[in-house]
């Protein structure tokens, strides 16, 4: 399981964004829908909804080729989503989106 470390600059960056640009290709636009029934639209809504928390921060294990970040948020219907993403040239590339685990839901509710 991935391990994350909190980073304050990521929260600041997300809060400063007026609009979010996303980077999708065929592989990452359908993977979460097929595996977890979370569409790319649902995943984007977690950012747009401004209900996004970044308690997970940057992934420290396992080591990856580019920085990966973790966040928790909700789509417009209130579905609680756990996200793993990277930022490429100012665009968000969602690596995976899945329903929050029981522990993540509890932590999300406590922080909100």
Which features does this protein show?
112 residues, alpha+beta
SSE diagram, text form:
Blueprint lengths: L2 E3 L2 H9 L9 H11 L3 H9 L4 E9 L7 E6 L5 E9 L2 E9 L2 H10 L1
Antiparallel strand pairs: 1-2, 2-3, 3-4, 4-5
Provide a descriptive summary of the structure in words:
With 112 residues, this protein is α+β, with helices and mostly antiparallel strands. It has one domain. It has a 5-stranded antiparallel sheet. The longest helix is centred in the first third of the chain and has 11 residues. The chain is globular and about 35 Å long. The two termini are 24 Å apart.
End-to-end distance: 24 Å
How many distinct folded domains?
A: 1
Backbone CA Rg: 13 Å
Q: Unreliable segments (pLDDT under 50, ≥5 consecutive)?
A: none
Percent helix, as a range, is 25-40%
If you average the pLDDT, what whole number results? 90
Beta content: 25-35%
Largest sheet: 5 strands, antiparallel
Q: What general form does the structure show? A: globular
Structural class: alpha+beta
Number of strands: 5
Number of H/I helices: 4
> Can you list the strand order of the major beta sheet?
1-2-3-4-5
Helix and strand run? EHHHEEEEH
């Amino acid at each position: 399981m991935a391990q994350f470390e909190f980073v304050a600059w990521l929260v600041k960056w997300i809060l400063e964004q007026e609009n979010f640009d996303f980077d999708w290709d065929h592989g990452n636009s359908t993977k979460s829908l097929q595996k977890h029934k979370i569409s790319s639209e649902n995943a984007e809504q977690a950012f747009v909804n401004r209900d996004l928390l970044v308690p997970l921060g940057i992934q420290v294990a396992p080591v990856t080729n580019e920085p990966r970040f973790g966040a928790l948020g909700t789509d417009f219907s209130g579905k609680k989503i756990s996200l793993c993403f990277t930022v490429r040239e100012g665009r968000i590339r969602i690596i995976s989106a899945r329903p929050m685990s029981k522990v993540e839901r509890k932590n999300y509710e406590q922080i909100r």
